[in-house]
Amino acid sequence: MAAGDGLGPASPGGEAGSDADPALSPEFYLDLAERLREAHRRAHALPDGVRIPVIRRLLTVTEAVKRDPLRASRRLDRMLQELPPQVDDPPTR
Q1: Direct distance between the N- and C-terminal alpha carbons of the chain, in angstroms, rounded to an integer
Q2: What is the DSSP letter of 93?
Q3: Can you tell me the distance from the alpha carbon of 60 to that of 24, in angstroms, rounded to the nearest whole number?
Q4: Is 40 exposed, middle or buried (0-12, 13-18, 19+ CB in 10 A)?
Q5: Is 48 exposed, middle or buried (0-12, 13-18, 19+ CB in 10 A)?
Q6: Is there a domain that residue 8 lies in?
Q7: What pTM did the predictor assign?
Q8: Within a domain: residue 88?
Q9: How far apart are CA 22 and CA 75, in angstroms?
Q10: In this structure, is residue 67 part of a structural domain?
Q11: What angle do CA 80, 83, 55 make, to 5 degrees?
């Protein structure tokens, strides 16, 4: 395993030239994290009977980010389209 041979921990993408992969950029992960937070905020606003299955799906997507971030990002996009937009919470006393 020489440096630059595409093997071992020195190459997170697994192959040469993977630097162009948007999933490796910090901006991609920052955006993905913000969208996951948004999805959780929306899910917590749902009624009890609907909220639990949605949160389970979100946890599955969160786990999938470790293995295939691009695919998980697409799944999250679909979930965000299905969830109702978040309305501001009424002010508390």
Answers
A1: 63
A2: -
A3: 20
A4: middle
A5: exposed
A6: no
A7: 0.65
A8: no
A9: 16
A10: yes
A11: 85
Task: With CA atoms as reference, report the closest residue to 36 among 51, 22, 57, 52.
Answer: 57
Q: Is residue 3 part of a domain?
A: no
User: Nearest to residue 36, comparing CAs of 66, 13, 5?
Assistant: 66
Query: Could you list the residue range(s) of the whole structural domain that residue 52 is in?
Result: 21-82
Domain tally for the chain? 1
- Cβ atoms of residues 22 and 69 within 8 Å: no
Residue 53 tokens read as 């299955």
DSSP category for residue 18 = G
Per-residue pLDDT of the chain (93 residues; tens, 9 = 90+): 445 544 444 444 444 444 556 657 999 999 999 999 999 999 999 998 999 999 999 999 999 999 999 999 999 999 999 988 876 654 455
CA distances to 3, 16, 30 from 6, in Å: 8, 6, 26
